[in-house]
Amino acid sequence: MRDVTPARRSLLAGLAAVAAAALGARQGDAQAPAPRFQPSRHPQDDWLDRLPGRHRTFIDCATVNGAGEGILYANNLYVANRNAYKLSESDLAIVVCLRHFATVFAFNDAIWAKYGKALSGLVQFVDPKTKQPPGANLLNSADYGMSLPSFGNTIASVVTRGTHFAVCDMATQFITGQVAAATKADAQALYKEFASNLIPNSHMVAAGVVAVNRAQEYGYTLLTAL
Questions:
Q1: What is the phi/psi pair of residue 62, to 5°?
Q2: Where are the domains of the chain?
Q3: What is the CATH number of domain 45-225?
Q4: Whole-model pTM?
Q5: Least C-beta-crowded within 10 Å: which of 31, 71, 163, 187?
Q6: 75 and 157 in contact (C-beta within 8 Å)?
């Protein structure tokens, strides 16, 4: 009963080897790391990768107050990195995203001079000095100091240092539609006029929320301005 024929011994050895191989394969599969996620790249987002800088920050602004704070935060990033790290402005890649109601500040003085009343009514924002609808983009004026959340910092002052702006196209279309209704203008013509009068260093993006996603995929740290 103890004797096992050579053929049977060979069969048992073969089955054992197959079982061991199968077990090893299952263990190997369980231990193999999952493929590392790599986001897709799209030509529309290439500008995010072209900005110079060793540190990348994306400031998300969705409100009237947040737009002013975004300008302030950009200034603070330059100042703190210079004072504490001895970094130059070119070491920082800073993007301020103007989306939702913050988008009204993505347009220059020509737009505000012409459509300030409609924009003011849309976002409930008035000149803190006159209490009237602004006739210019007040975030580009240094005359308001602490009465605006930008604390006297301006669009021009952060642009000079290298800041870029992501401007929400969806919000721009909504805003121009509302302004068109208020002024009895053609919405498409108004959209083209607004899009042709952006503040400096602006990049129209499909939507601000999409830009928030893409910027993080390109290595930008997200900072929210409320």
A1: -125, -5
A2: 1-34, 45-225
A3: 3.40.1260.10
A4: 0.85
A5: 31
A6: yes
